[in-house]
Every structure is written in structure tokens, then in C-alpha cells.
């Protein structure tokens, strides 16, 4: 009988569970369940979905260890009894945009404030980060803010629930997820209680009384499963933020870049050194192995294609067919896809725009092409920001739901100016969590060397003129906001 491990991906839209052989990585079974829509969600819905997904995956009775990869940044505020104080604000909830601007202003504003935050945490506050959501809570809901006894992130809270613990001091996390809070010094590997205090408008002494999850090593056992549910045999790993888990699942190392197009668009790269970018384009996060994982993140990912397909009355295959029937540049039509505001660049109140619409481009093929090119141009900006920070780029892997689009695959090399590798569709966040669980179980110095993901390489002729047109028109939108 093989030794089995479970990897869990609690993402924005759903929960996925994969059960794999701890030694070979072979997939044994899977399960999934949907999450409710919205940017404000009751954490209990994540727990219900996790239980449903575990059941669909055949349970955990024969599983030796588990880890959770989760959506980053969300605010789970707990009271002294461990109860959730209010619905969690997710990473894509932009109501804390003004709070982010205030926090930057309080350290000098503008480039000075941004540089100060980058030096302290590795990232410039934007609405996605937990620190800005806590400031929003302090100002908008001071009674709730006054009840805060602990602050967790989605994956921290779910690991805690999986353990069956009710003790707040048993909350645990890892460097990758902690580095996305805005009150964790990624380079030093420690919490900044002064920044937590500033966010909640309390004293630093009071902030030190608030429990933050213990930051564990990448293969450290953080507890065991809930014995009351028959999971007492289950070792629990520290988990990771979703992008760090995906990097572990893909086996990324220095020089490897992943472009993930899910609900958000993410450009991530493994770096041996911390990255500090005061422009805010690149956030200096940690990875799940002890190194660093700089990210450039857009709010608008696969839903750009969802919206375009709905507008044109086609499915995703139909949208790809239309886009590939058009010429590069879409007859001069550009979509700047800030449909839900934007994080990179930081324009939380922006809206999307079609620019350059003419009679020649007013057709389904060019509209579809502009949607795909606009999505990819935003990610190309993130890649360029990475290279400007000295992050090495030797290979690019395209993952996520939208990476399955034939149009995205074929147009990406032209927009990015580099060949891309597209692995077979998979649940790479859950796979990374499973690999971490196997690492915890083994007690070895390095994660298990599971078989390499099979990929296809796609090349194309670069189209810099498309990027240039996008940059000019993106600038017009930025000037208005």
C-alpha cells in the first residue's frame, strides 16, 4: 500500500483536494467543491467546501499528511473565543484602497512613503494586502476592530480548523502567506507589530497582545488532524500562499517564471534574494522553500475572457476561434482590461476601456483579439517589472484556467516576446500543497523529487507594436485616475 498525502487548494472560486502517493507523486484521487461568489465571504463557507471536497476525494482515513495552499491576503478577524468577528474581506475587495493610500501617506507619501514600506515589508500597501483591510476595519467598524484578538489568513484559519483546535495560540502559517500581510518583514522573517498597531490605530503594546499565526519552517509539522473526526493520525504541514504552492507544485527554481491566469493574473519568479521595489509593481514575497517569490499581480485575469465571451455570445472555445481569426493588433483596437479596478498598476477605482474602436475593428474577431491581447499585455508589464528588478528569467510557464485557451497559448509568445511552456492542465496549487505534505512526512532536507510536469513549448513572432499601443492607451486610463 502506498503512503498517501493530501494537497488542498482553497482558492477564490473553489476548493480542490488531490490525494497523491507521497513517494512518487502519482495522483490517486481528487475532489472539489465551489465557493460562494463575492469579495466578502463567511469563512464557514470555505470550511463547508473543504469538507465537501474531502468527501468527494474519498476522505482522509488512509492519508498520512495534508497541507493547504490558499488565496492570499484575506482578513479573517477572530475574537478572544476564536469566533469569526465578521465576514472575511478577500484579496480582490477594493474598499480598503483609501486606507492603503493613507498608510503610505503616514510614512511620507509618494515615493518616500512607498520606499519606506518597501524597506519595512518588501511591498507597498495596496487594497489587496491585509494591513489595509485592518485599517479599513478600524475606521469603518471600530466596534469590530476593538474585538480583534487574532488575525489569520484564509489558509491559516483552515489549517487551524482542520486540526480541531480552539486555542488561538495554535494558529500557524508560513513565510509565503505571512509575507502578503503588509505587517511582516519578508527579508528578516518577522512580524512588524508597529505596523499592525498603525493599521488598527492602537498602541504597539496593544498590538503585541493580538495573536498572529506562528510562522513555521517550510517543512515543519504544525499539528495533527482533528481527532474527533477520526483524523488524529493526520500530520499537518504549514501550508502556503497559493502562488508559492503552485511554484512548489511546478518544481520552480531560480530563473523559472510562472504566469498564472486565474481569477487574478500573476507573474511569479523564484529568487534567492529578497526583492524590494518601491514602485509597487513587484511585491517582495517569500516562497514555500526558504527562498523568495517576487510577484506582479493583476486583479483582472480569466474574467476578462469570461466577460468578452459573454459580450460576444460565445463560449471560451468560440472566443479563442474568433481571436485567432483576427490579425495581431486587432485593427488598432486595444482593450485596457481594468474591469474590477487594478492592482498593477495600482488603480483601484479605474474601469476598463476599449480604445481605438473604428468601423474596421467593430467586429467580433477584433474585439476577441483585443480582449486576449489586453489581458496578456497587462501580464507582460508585470514580467517587464520583474526583469527591471534584476529577477532572472530563463523560462516561462503558463498556467491557470485561462491558460487552456488556444488563443492565449498562441498569442502569449508574441506579446511576451519569449517562448512559453504550457503544462498539461492540473491543480498545481493543490499539487504543491501535497508535495509539502510529503516533505513534512519525510523529514528530509528537501521536498521529494516527484516526476517532472509534462509540457509543450510554444513559440511565436514578437509583436512589440501591440505592447507599444497598449502602453500608450494604458497611460491615458492612468491619467484619469
Automatic annotation (TrEMBL):
Against Pfam families, the record matches this protein to: FGGY_C, FGGY_N
> Which residues are annotated as active site?
242
Concerning Gene3D superfamilies, the annotation shows: 3.30.420.40
Q: Where is the Carbohydrate kinase FGGY C-terminal domain?
A: 258-439
Q: Which residues bind substrate?
A: 72-73
Q: Name one GO molecular function term.
A: ATP binding
- SUPFAM superfamilies on file: Actin-like ATPase domain (SSF53067)
Q: Pinpoint the Carbohydrate kinase FGGY N-terminal domain residues.
A: 5-249
Q: Can you supply a Gene Ontology BP term from the record?
A: xylulose catabolic process
Write down the chemical reaction(s) this protein catalyses: D-xylulose + ATP = D-xylulose 5-phosphate + ADP + H(+)
Instruction: Enumerate the residues marked as the site Important for activity.
Output: 9
Q: What is the role of this chain?
A: Catalyzes the phosphorylation of D-xylulose to D-xylulose 5-phosphate.
Question: HAMAP family of this UniProt entry?
Answer: XylB
Family, as annotated? Belongs to the FGGY kinase family.
**Protein name, please?**
Xylulose kinase
Amino acid at each position: 500500500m502506498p503512503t498517501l498525502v493530501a494537497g488542498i487548494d482553497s482558492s477564490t472560486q473553489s476548493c480542490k483536494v488531490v490525494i497523491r502517493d507521497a513517494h512518487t507523486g502519482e495522483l490517486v484521487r481528487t475532489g472539489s467543491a465551489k465557493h460562494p461568489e463575492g469579495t466578502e465571504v463567511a469563512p464557514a463557507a470555505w470550511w463547508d467546501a473543504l469538507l465537501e471536497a474531502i468527501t468527494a476525494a474519498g476522505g482522509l482515513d488512509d492519508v498520512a499528511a495534508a497541507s493547504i495552499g490558499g488565496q492570499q491576503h484575506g482578513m479573517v478577524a477572530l475574537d478572544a473565543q476564536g469566533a469569526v468577528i465578521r465576514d472575511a474581506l478577500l484579496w480582490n475587495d477594493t474598499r480598503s484602497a483609501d486606507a492603503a493610500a493613507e498608510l503610505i501617506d503616514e510614512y511620507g507619501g509618494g515615493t518616500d512613503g512607498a520606499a519606506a514600506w518597501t524597506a519595512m515589508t518588501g511591498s507597498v500597501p495596496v487594497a489587496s494586502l491585509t494591513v489595509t483591510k485592518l485599517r479599513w476595519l478600524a475606521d469603518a467598524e471600530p466596534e469590530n476592530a476593538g474585538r480583534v484578538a487574532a488575525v489569520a489568513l484564509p489558509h491559516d484559519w483552515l489549517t487551524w480548523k482542520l486540526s480541531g483546535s480552539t486555542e488561538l495560540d495554535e494558529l500557524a502559517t508560513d513565510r509565503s502567506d505571512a509575507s502578503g500581510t503588509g505587517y511582516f518583514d519578508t527579508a528578516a522573517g518577522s512580524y512588524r507589530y508597529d505596523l499592525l498597531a498603525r493599521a488598527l490605530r492602537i498602541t504597539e503594546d496593544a498590538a503585541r497582545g493580538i495573536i498572529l499565526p506562528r510562522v513555521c519552517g517550510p517543512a515543519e509539522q504544525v499539528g495533527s488532524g482533528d481527532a474527533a473526526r477520526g483524523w488524529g493520525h493526520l500530520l499537518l504541514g504549514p501550508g502556503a500562499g497559493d502562488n508559492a504552492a503552485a511554484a512548489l507544485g511546478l518544481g520552480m527554481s531560480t530563473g523559472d517564471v510562472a504566469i498564472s491566469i486565474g481569477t487574478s493574473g500573476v507573474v511569479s519568479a523564484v529568487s534567492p534574494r529578497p526583492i524590494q521595489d518601491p514602485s509597487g509593481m513587484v511585491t517582495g514575497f517569500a516562497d514555500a522553500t526558504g527562498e523568495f517569490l517576487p510577484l506582479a499581480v493583476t486583479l483582472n485575469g480569466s474574467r476578462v475572457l469570461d466577460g468578452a465571451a459573454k459580450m460576444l455570445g460565445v463560449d471560451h472555445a468560440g472566443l479563442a476561434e474568433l481571436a485567432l481569426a483576427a490579425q495581431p493588433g486587432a485593427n488598432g483596437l486595444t482593450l485596457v482590461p481594468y474591469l474590477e479596478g487594478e492592482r498593477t498598476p495600482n488603480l483601484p477605482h479605474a474601469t476598463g476601456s476599449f480604445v481605438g474602436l473604428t468601423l474596421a475593428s467593430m467586429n467580433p474577431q477584433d474585439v476577441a483579439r483585443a480582449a486576449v491581447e489586453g489581458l496578456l499585455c497587462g501580464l507582460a508589464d508585470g514580467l517587464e517589472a520583474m526583469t527591471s528588478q534584476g529577477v532572472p528569467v530563463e523560462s516561462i510557464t503558463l498556467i491557470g484556467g485561462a491558460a487552456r485557451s488556444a488563443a492565449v497559448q498562441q498569442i502569449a509568445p508574441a506579446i511576451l516576446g519569449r517562448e512559453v511552456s504550457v503544462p498539461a492542465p492540473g491543480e498545481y496549487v493543490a499539487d504543491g500543497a501535497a508535495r509539502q505534505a510529503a516533505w513534512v512526512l519525510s523529514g528530509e532536507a528537501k521536498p521529494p523529487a516527484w516526476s517532472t510536469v509534462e509540457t509543450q513549448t510554444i513559440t511565436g513572432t514578437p509583436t512589440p507594436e501591440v505592447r507599444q499601443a497598449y502602453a500608450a492607451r494604458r497611460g491615458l486610463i492612468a491619467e484619469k485616475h
